[in-house]
Write a structure and sequence with these properties.
This protein has 364 residues and is α/β, with parallel strands linked by helices. The protein folds into two domains: 108 residues, Aspartate Aminotransferase, domain 1; 244 residues, Aspartate Aminotransferase, domain 2 (3-Layer(aba) Sandwich), CATH 3.40.640. The protein is 41% helix and 17% strand. The strands form four sheets. A seven-stranded mixed beta sheet has the order 2-10-9-8-5-3-4, sandwiched between helices. Helix 4 links the parallel strand 3 and strand 4.
């Protein structure tokens, strides 16, 4: 199978050092060797997230930890406030309803962002009813980056009423800084197949002491996604069930590379430059940027197809050149297209991609 370089929102490009790390000789998951591996990996993840909180390592997709949030943090008789601005934030509301939670939906049109005052308006009236706010930080279906820091500050005003927030940072984590302790984040999750640039199948989260206390108040937290079992296992650098050992080793290698070679500040700056590069290319060719101004993602650019090109034909032509971008998601198919610039995609890669698109579309 010939490889196409991935400029899609996920899975993202995986470099050889990560693939080599996954080819490690297997070890016993209840052995001291495994405990040493997890014990070396989780402090690096903490450092990347600016936190001393518990790190949850889940052999699942991000959707698993999204479900874990609604299972562990909503007490009987309390409600969920789901902030909905695209396909994946819509999904979190569906997950909550599928787990028999009473959901209040804050909906905006696809492409619009969640403004902090929208949440403040609801909590000012209904905080006593609501246990959990669900926020997708970076909505990959629309290219919207929501202001998680400012929204967290709003939610924190209502802590005495029992309100907390879970953040889906699936395509934001390792693209922009998420300062968990400074912002007082209770729960933030991501899959490793986005900006961590690992193969899919592993998810990580940071969980605060307040979130642990809340989970202790919630009965029927499920079995596989009972987060208190993960916390208990963490004391021995273990997991409740069989972990994806090879991926955890790859996470160790990636976190080490980020911290010791690129550096966090350099990484945030690189992603900002790459986002600017793609947005400037799009607008200079006559395209429009799809999301609301001020809410542009740093992980991917969602381009409005106002020029009426065939995105499918463009992607087919790119495929012959060994590259792939993403069509619009769901109802935005052919109305938008998405170019990812996160993780192990670098400026030189984007220069080559954009030159190929120019050539295919006849731009000069």
């Amino acid at each position: 199978m010939s490889h196409k370089k991935l400029f899609i929102p996920g899975p993202t490009e995986v470099l050889p050092d990560i693939l080599e790390a996954m080819a490690m000789p297997m070890i016993g998951h209840r052995s001291k060797d495994y405990s040493a591996l997890q014990g070396e990996t989780t402090p690096k993840v903490q450092q990347c997230l600016y936190t001393k909180n518990q790190i949850i390592v889940s052999t699942s997709s991000s959707t698993g930890l999204m479900e874990a949030a609604v299972l562990n943090f909503v007490r009987p008789g309390k409600k969920v406030l789901a902030c909905m601005c695209g396909a994946f934030s819509d999904r979190w509301s569906k997950i909550a309803k599928a787990n028999n939670k009473d959901v209040i939906e804050l909906k905006v049109d696809w492409g619009m962002g969640i403004h902090p005052e929208m949440i403040d308006d609801i909590l000012a009236k209904q905080a006593e009813e609501i246990d959990l706010v669900l926020l997708v930080m970076n909505e990959t279906s629309t290219g919207v980056l929501n202001p998680a820091k400012e929204i967290q500050a709003v939610v924190n005003k209502y802590r005495d009423a029992g309100v907390m927030m879970a953040i889906d940072a699936v395509s934001a984590m390792m693209v922009v800084p998420i300062k968990v302790d400074e912002w007082e984040v209770d729960f933030v999750l991501a899959g490793v197949q986005k900006a961590w640039s690992l193969p899919p199948g592993l998810a990580v989260a940071a969980m605060s002491e307040r979130a642990i206390e809340r989970a202790n108040e919630v009965p029927h937290r499920g079995y596989y996604f009972d987060l208190l079992e993960y916390v208990k296992s963490n004391a021995k650098d273990q997991t409740p069930s069989t972990p994806a050992i090879s991926q955890i080793n790859a996470l160790r290698v990636m976190a080490t590379r980020i911290l010791e070679q690129e550096g966090l500040e350099n990484r945030w700056a690189r992603h900002a430059r790459q986002a600017d590069m793609v947005r400037n290319w799009a607008t200079s060719r006559g395209f429009e940027i799809f999301p609301e101004k001020g809410f542009y993602s740093q992980a991917l650019t969602c381009v409005k197809n106002n020029l009426g090109i065939s995105v499918a034909d463009l992607n087919s032509a790119l495929g012959k050149r060994g590259k792939m971008i993403s069509n619009g998601y769901g109802k935005l198919k052919e109305e938008t297209f998405r170019i990812s610039h996160m993780g192990d995609i670098y400026e030189k890669d984007l220069e080559e991609l954009l030159a190929d698109i120019d050539d295919i579309l006849g731009f000069k």
